[in-house]
Design goal:
Largest sheet: 7 strands, mixed
Structural class: mainly beta
Helix content: under 10%
Number of strands: 11
Number of helices: 0
Strand content: over 45%
């Protein structure tokens, strides 16, 4: 079974920076797209950023030019560098990945349990 474990969430002041990490573990053939989503209390979960196996990135307009997604395939890890944080960025951030597993006909989708980011004014 594949597991995704996020880390790096913390309490920071507005204008500060954080770097989130998500490491995938388990028996895997390969990892396709990876991404970050977030959910604030009372709100729907929303896409933050995604990155393909080939390094193509996609960002929500609200985080574009402030956040940067990257990945280290050798470490099966995806990162989210968050700069110039705003109070509205406060949410639980979830890691997501499409993983190809031996014995499966197609990629399987996995979620981490989330890491809390709180931005104070």
């Amino acid at each position: 079974q594949v597991q995704l474990v996020e880390s790096g969430g913390a309490l920071v002041q507005a204008g500060g920076s954080l770097r989130l990490s998500c490491a995938a573990s388990g028996i895997m053939f390969s990892i396709d797209a990876m991404g970050w989503y977030r959910q604030a209390p009372g709100m729907q979960r929303e896409l933050v950023a995604t990155i393909t196996n080939g390094g193509i990135t996609n960002y929500a307009n609200s985080v574009r030019d402030r956040f940067t997604i990257s990945r280290d395939n050798a470490k099966n890890t995806v990162y989210l560098q968050m700069n110039n944080l705003r109070p509205e960025d406060t949410a639980v951030y979830y890691c997501n990945a499409d993983v190809k597993v031996l014995g499966r006909p197609s990629a399987m989708n996995y979620w981490g349990k989330g890491t809390l980011v709180t931005v104070s004014s």
